[in-house]
Specification:
By secondary structure, this protein is α/β, with parallel strands linked by helices. The protein contains 20 helices and 14 strands.
């Protein structure tokens, strides 16, 4: 066997490497997305290059065993020119060229010319008869006609590439860079360089590497990347749609509320006799207008709440509050409906721990569930029970209409509404929409709203809500069974526990006892329990704020004379026209200003209110106290 030259060895190695990489890239392309035309065209190109590299490797070995390589040469050349055809198909598809006439013409010309070359190859007119030289190397060159058609094909492909590169409408021309080495290799064969075999292998290998880079990076070939992109675009579109829906509902709810409030207001004026007396049948019809107006307003509010929940824009403001207080408030809200339906309310709970929930939203849950059972229980009875689920540390409230089962069809609709979170029927949509919102609100708190219906045994709503993890310091102080009767008690209503502790630190050494409440509702409850000497009141609180507390204090028989010290985080504050408001102190609270205000309250409590005296604060004293408190804040 003759010695192997460096050129022959390099040709053999380069051919084998071309085959391995070409086959690997072909497998990756088809594995990613074998049904896509882009992948099919590109697989035709890389697969043809791999087959050509394999045939070159076989030819390199055949030279040293005196084997006629003509059949292998024909097979390899066929694979090579099929790869050229696949490349043109791929490039014209990949670039998304709008000139479809050019694309169609380029493809027809390429296919026609490759077909001519293949006919010449199998007719033996493309390559010359290989000659065996003294060093056992077969040398083969193009025939004259083979050289002509190969040059025309090279010029044709160059013209197509140039058109794409200069076309401003093409999306990208990256693939042209990958095709350029193939043109260089083909030119080396046409010129007839002695190392053309090696050059063609190397340029084809470079082209495959560049094509592989495009395939791995471009989303058109990878179905997962394409899927992620599509999902991302869909999510962005859904978010935009949801945002626009929320804006639309918010604007529409405002536009609907304005005339609806006027309708409700005027009907109430009519019912109140502002515009004179009406016949009994007219009053009944006005009452119907008023009830339907309130029902429509409730529906509008529910739709807006549901849209906020769907958009993730509904925020909760949890506070510590007694569940019994929430139940009392819900029953008071529904008192008219309960009386109209002749429903008797039974209570079966005691010593329930406080909840840590958004007061207004849990109130909404209770009102919705109670209203549903009241409407389903005419002249019946409803039992409200509760217990602490120690395994989850949740307070579980059960609202049951005794012995009255909901009709099966309606019960199924309620269950589906709670399971899906959407209204699934056109009947009683307002009620079912309220239940869907209530379940969402319960889930936002970490709880759940469930419904059970037992024919002959009644229907039950079960509400699970988180209990307070630990009793806050303010509640612990309020829960003390025996306050010192010799020390005045000050009630501090503030949703910030640290503010309560600061006020306690100021007043306890001065001889006062401090009881704290972290919500307006809790503050009213504590005020009734302990009858404080004075109340310090924060105006900005979630749920029932300071203004609401003042309104309810003013109307309460035993609390309407308790002095109130307003505490606010702003200097720009105008105290309300309320005789209970003693003075105003801005945050951060100064010790001297606070103690001075509490002592003013103590003097007012001990003075004879029936006989005016200098110790009884007048309106001028209140203003003076306000100014002194501000000066103390600045000097304190």
């Amino acid at each position: 066997m003759p010695p192997i030259s460096v050129l022959s060895l390099s040709g053999l190695v380069s051919s084998f490497v071309l085959f391995v990489f070409g086959a690997a890239i072909t497998v990756i392309i088809l594995w990613q997305r074998h049904q896509a035309r882009l992948n099919q065209y590109l697989a035709l190109t890389t697969g043809g290059m791999a087959a050509w590299g394999l045939s070159n490797a076989v030819i390199s070995i055949a030279r040293y065993y005196d084997i006629d390589p003509t059949p292998v040469i024909a097979a390899g050349s066929t694979a090579y020119f099929i790869a050229m055809l696949g490349l043109i198909l791929f490039v014209t598809e990949f670039e998304e060229i709008e000139e479809r006439l050019f694309v169609r013409g380029a493809r027809i010309l390429e296919a026609t010319w490759v077909s001519i070359i293949l006919v010449l190859i199998f007719a033996g007119s493309f390559w010359q008869e290989p000659a065996l030289q003294d060093n056992h190397r077969y040398v083969y060159h193009l025939t004259d006609i083979g050289l002509l058609v190969a040059m025309i094909l090279l010029i044709l492909n160059g013209g197509i590439a140039l058109f794409i590169l200069r076309n401003p409408k093409a999306r990208r021309a990256t693939i042209i860079i990958a095709a350029l080495p193939l043109f260089i290799g083909g030119l080396a064969v046409i010129v007839g360089l002695d190392a053309s075999h090696f050059i063609n292998n190397i340029t084809a290998f470079i082209s495959i590497l560049l094509i592989a880079r495009i395939v791995l990076k471009d989303q058109l070939f990878n179905p997962l990347v394409s899927l992620y992109q599509e999902l991302s675009e869909k999510n962005a579109l859904l978010e935009e749609t949801s945002h626009r829906k929320t804006e639309f509902l918010a604007n529409m709810s405002h536009e609907l509320r304005t005339p609806l409030n006027s309708i409700i207001g005027y009907t109430e004026l009519l019912l109140g006799g502002t515009y004179g007396d009406f016949p009994e049948n007219h009053i009944e019809r006005i009452n119907r207008i008023n009830r339907n107006g309130h029902r429509l307003l409730e529906l509008i509010n529910n739709v807006l709440d549901l849209s906020k929940i769907d958009a993730g824009r509904l925020e909760l403001y949890p506070v510590y509050i007694a569940p019994t207080l929430l139940i009392d408030q819900a029953l008071a809200t529904l008192d008219t409906l309960i009386q109209e339906n002749g429903v008797k309310i039974n209570r079966s709970y005691q010593k329930l721990p406080d909840l840590y929930v958004d007061e207004s939203r849990v109130q909404q849950i209770l009102v919705n569930t109670l209203a549903n059972l009241v409407r389903l229980s005419p002249n019946g009875s409803i039992t409200i029970s509760g217990y602490l689920d120690t395994s989850r540390h949740h307070v579980v409230l059960q609202i049951r209409n005794d012995g009255i089962a909901t009709p099966i069809g309606n019960a199924e609709v309620i269950k589906q509404t709670l399971q899906s979170g959407q209204v699934v029927t056109t009947e009683q949509q307002s009620a079912h929409l309220g239940l869907a919102i209530s379940d969402r609100l319960a889930q936002m708190h970490g709880g759940r709203l469930l419904f059970e219906n037992t024919p002959g045994g009644g229907s039950t709503f079960t509400i699970s809500l988180p209990a307070s993890v630990k009793q806050p310091a303010a509640d612990q102080r309020a829960a003390k069974a025996n306050l010192d009767p010799s020390r005045p008690v000050i009630l501090v209503i503030d949703d910030n526990i640290e503010a309560i502790e600061v006020i306690e630190g100021y007043l306890e050494p001065a001889g006062y006892q401090v009881v704290g409440a972290q919500s307006g509702r809790e503050g009213l409850l504590r005020a009734q329990e302990i009858k404080p000497l004075a109340i310090t009141l924060d105006m900005k609180m979630p749920g029932l704020d300071g203004w609401g507390v003042l309104e309810q204090l003013k109307d309460h028989e035993t609390l309407q004379d308790v002095p109130v010290v307003i505490v606010s985080a702003t200097d720009q504050f105008t105290p309300p026209q309320n005789k209970q408001v003693l003075t105003f102190i801005s945050k951060p609270i100064a010790r001297r200003a606070l103690i001075q205000a509490i002592r003013m309250a103590e003097q007012q409590a001990t003075s004879d209110t029936s006989v005016p005296s200098k110790t009884t604060p007048t309106s001028d004293d209140i203003i003076s106290g306000h100014v002194q408190a501000d000066m103390s804040n600045k000097n304190g």
